[in-house]
Design goal:
Layout: E1 2-3, E2 11-12, E3 17-18, E4 21-22, H1 28-33, E5 35-36, E6 41-46, H2 47-51, H3 56-59, E7 65-67, E8 78-82, H4 83-114, H5 127-131, H6 149-175, H7 183-191, H8 201-206, H9 208-217, H10 220-224, H11 229-238, H12 242-251, H13 253-264, H14 278-286, H15 292-305, H16 309-321, H17 332-338, H18 346-384, H19 390-408, E9 431-432
Parallel strand pairs: 6-9
Antiparallel strand pairs: 1-2, 3-4, 5-6, 6-8, 7-8
InterPro entries: XPA_sf (IPR037129)
Length: 433
């Protein structure tokens, strides 16, 4: 016998059922305490409403009873859970979240203590660039931030050098047409570059005008890929020639792609005007993180494997297997990928299939029609704009679906069997949340 998750002193009796549901995590007294006094009936919770407050994995750990749908008797039976057990799952989830937060906070405090620099000496406008998420409470498997200690100390040393040189640099910049509205704008711009060491920082700033001119003339587009939209705007405001140079560099991306592809695979140049590659090429022009060598490699691979249907099917099957998904026979996207009608990565197809499958499972065709485009675009933006992995991009999109589900899917079940049914409808014997 296990301890009750609600009262902490009762015992969960094996094989005992309350209102047709076998007890899993609460004792019989707690299960019977959740009643509607007006109707004198035990409260039951539908699966859809339960998913609004607990996760599917938690829901799978308790038992349920099946009842016929009060609106559509011929449809698939509804899954009903004891309200007491749903409350217990919420309590367990809350305790688990508090424990995770406590551990993550302790890990954060230990990191900050071990940091060999004083955070207060970092300019406020630059703290996010220097520290990243190093001093944040990070709740993941190992409570480890993405920003390393080495990265923080390196950027800190570089910023300190910049600050020391700023009194002599700013006048020199103003004399050479590179006027600044605020020194922090330039600091944000420089820190945005992925500089791996700061040994030559002082020497760089002795001839700082040349450094800035090099950034504008030759490194504009590369540096822009490391800046957020707000920092790009700050750089345009801080450095007079950066805006026009960025526009010119972006306009040259198309020619840079054609030149690189002609050098590596000249027979594949026809793909640049092929509708099958339009999606990949348009993303290359839109997302600055998309390097020209990456897209050239992708186009070359597509040229080689386009007619090799077996290879493309095997790649898609492997990508779908990472999400425990099978190949949908009615999926036009999968067909287009396998038969070389569209040039995308198999991981993208698998991610979209996972999102679509989840939408249909949670809210049927209505959820798919209303939210699939937004969620798929969020997935793509995370990968190509934010630099996230395919799986992380899907996870962000799924968080959006979780919010949407609580807001809109609450009263809809069993779409595939006669339409939507309202979980608010009352059966003669039970009350539903």
């Amino acid at each position: 016998m296990t301890q009750c998750a609600l009262c902490d002193h009762g015992q969960v009796a094996q094989g005992v059922k309350v209102n047709g549901v076998q007890l899993s995590i609460v004792c019989e007294d707690c299960a019977l305490s959740e009643i509607d006094e007006a109707r004198d009936k035990i409260k039951m919770v539908t699966k859809t409403n339960a998913l609004a407050v607990v996760k599917q994995k938690a829901l799978d750990s308790i038992q349920h009873a099946e009842r016929s749908n009060p609106m559509y008797r011929s449809s698939t039976p509804m899954q009903l859970f004891l309200a007491a057990e749903i409350t217990a799952l919420q309590k367990l989830a809350k305790n688990e979240a508090l424990a995770k937060t406590k551990n993550a906070t302790a890990a954060r405090d230990a990191r900050v203590t071990a940091l060999p620099i004083s955070i207060s000496t970092i300019p406020a406008a630059l703290r996010s660039e220097v520290l990243g998420d190093y001093c944040d409470v990070v709740e993941n498997k190992h409570n480890k931030p993405k920003t390393s200690k080495r990265s923080v100390t390196t950027k800190y040393a570089f910023v300190k050098t910049i600050k020391d040189c700023m009194p002599t640099v700013v006048p020199a910049l103003k004399q050479n047409r590179f006027g600044l509205k605020h020194p922090d704008a330039l600091l944000r711009f420089i820190v945005g570059r992925k500089i791996k060491n700061c040994d030559d920082a002082t020497e760089r700033f002795v001839s700082f005008q040349l450094l800035v001119r090099n950034c504008i003339d030759r490194e504009t587009h590369r540096m822009a890929t490391y800046l957020t939209p707000s920092d790009t705007k700050a750089a345009i405001e801080a450095i007079a020639g950066f805006g026009p140079a960025l526009a010119e560099a972006t306009a040259k991306r198309s020619q840079a792609l054609r030149t690189a592809l002609a050098k590596q695979k000249p027979e594949a140049l026809g793909l640049l005007d092929d509708n099958a590659c339009a999606k990949r090429i348009s993303r290359y022009m839109k997302y600055l993180r998309y390097d020209v060598q990456d897209i050239v490699s992708s186009l070359t691979d597509f040229y080689v494997t386009r007619q090799d249907i077996d290879t493309r099917k095997a790649r898609l099957k492997a990508a779908l297997a990472e999400w425990d998904l099978g190949r949908r026979s009615d999926s036009g996207f999968c067909d287009d990928y396998e038969y070389g009608r569209v040039d995308v990565d198999p991981q993208e197809v698998a991610g979209v299939m996972y999102i679509v499958s989840s939408l249909f499972e949670e809210g049927g065709h209505r959820a798919y029609s209303e939210y699939s485009h937004t969620m798929e675009q969020t997935f793509i933006d995370q990968v190509f704009d934010k630099g996230a992995s395919w799986k992380d991009g899907v996870r962000v999109a799924m968080k959006m679906m979780s919010r949407v589900r609580r807001r809109n899917f609450r009263y809809y079940d069993n779409y595939y069997h006669g339409g939507y049914s309202s979980s608010d409808a009352l059966d003669e014997d039970e009350e539903y949340w």
